[in-house]
């Protein structure tokens, strides 16, 4: 398995958008904290989160290839479970996965969007202003952050976390990297 430094270098060669790069950092931070909480392999889960969208720009919006290209890029660099989770996070591929890492990645991908969208509507646009209570309110507002799939966030319950616990862990994880996220 590659190191985080190697993963960042590979990611940087495929991802040019600053926003997408920050999204990958956010998902990595969330996956690491969730893995820590669940007693899973923090490195595998973290790298899975970091690299989950490595092919997003390369496939130019062709969601029928998103995840498959990532698998080609990352073959022999990540364990099979990580590659399966990366493919399965794009539900359009129809790759079903019951792996805990896969469920976590699908949930985290959307939780990161909810947390960041909530921070961006705060008076100072800072993660420090976001609370679990504000996240729960925003989760219930269907017209807020429409790209966030609320059902995918609920996958956290299938890995043993309540929605509130999941949000608390996620918020803490992103607050720790607020400088990298510029929030």
Q: Average pLDDT value?
A: 97
Order of helices and strands: HHHHHHHHHH
Instruction: Report the span from N to C terminus.
Output: 31 Å
* Low-confidence runs: none
Main sheet: strands, sense, barrel: none
**What is the CATH first-level class name?**
Mainly Alpha
Number of strands: 0
* Count of DSSP-assigned helices: 10
Keywords:
183 residues; Hypothetical protein af1432; 10 helices; 60% helix; 0% strand
Description:
This protein has helices spanning 4-14, 18-38, 42-51, 68-74, 80-88, 100-120, 132-140, 150-153, 163-176, 178-181. The chain is mainly α. It has a single domain (4-181), classed as Hypothetical protein af1432, CATH 1.10.3210. The longest helix has 21 residues, at 18-38.
Short account of what is shown:
The chain has 183 residues and is mostly helical. The protein is 60% helix and 0% strand. The protein has a single domain (4-181), classed as Hypothetical protein af1432 (Orthogonal Bundle), CATH 1.10.3210.
How are the SSEs ordered, and which strands pair?
Blueprint: H1 4-14, H2 18-38, H3 42-51, H4 68-74, H5 80-88, H6 100-120, H7 132-140, H8 150-153, H9 163-176, H10 178-181
Helix pairs in contact: 1-3, 2-3, 2-6, 2-9, 3-5, 4-5, 5-6, 6-9
């Amino acid at each position: 398995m590659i190191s985080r430094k190697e993963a960042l270098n590979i990611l940087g060669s495929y991802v040019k958008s600053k926003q997408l790069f920050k999204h990958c950092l956010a998902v990595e931070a969330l996956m690491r904290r969730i893995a820590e909480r669940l007693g899973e392999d923090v490195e595998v889960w973290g790298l899975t989160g970091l690299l989950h969208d490595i092919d997003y720009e390369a496939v130019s919006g062709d969601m029928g290839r998103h995840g498959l290209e990532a698998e080609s890029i990352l073959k022999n660099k990540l364990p099979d479970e990580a590659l399966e989770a990366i493919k399965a996070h794009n539900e359009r591929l129809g790759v079903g996965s019951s792996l805990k890492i896969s469920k976590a990645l699908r949930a985290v991908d959307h939780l990161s969007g909810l947390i960041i969208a909530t921070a961006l509507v705060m008076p100072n646009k800072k993660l420090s202003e976001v609370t679990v209570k504000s996240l729960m309110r925003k989760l219930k507002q269907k017209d807020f952050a429409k790209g966030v799939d609320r059902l995918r966030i609920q996958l956290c319950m299938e890995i043993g976390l309540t929605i509130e616990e999941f949000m608390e862990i996620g918020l803490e994880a992103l607050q720790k990297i607020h400088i990298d996220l510029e929030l």
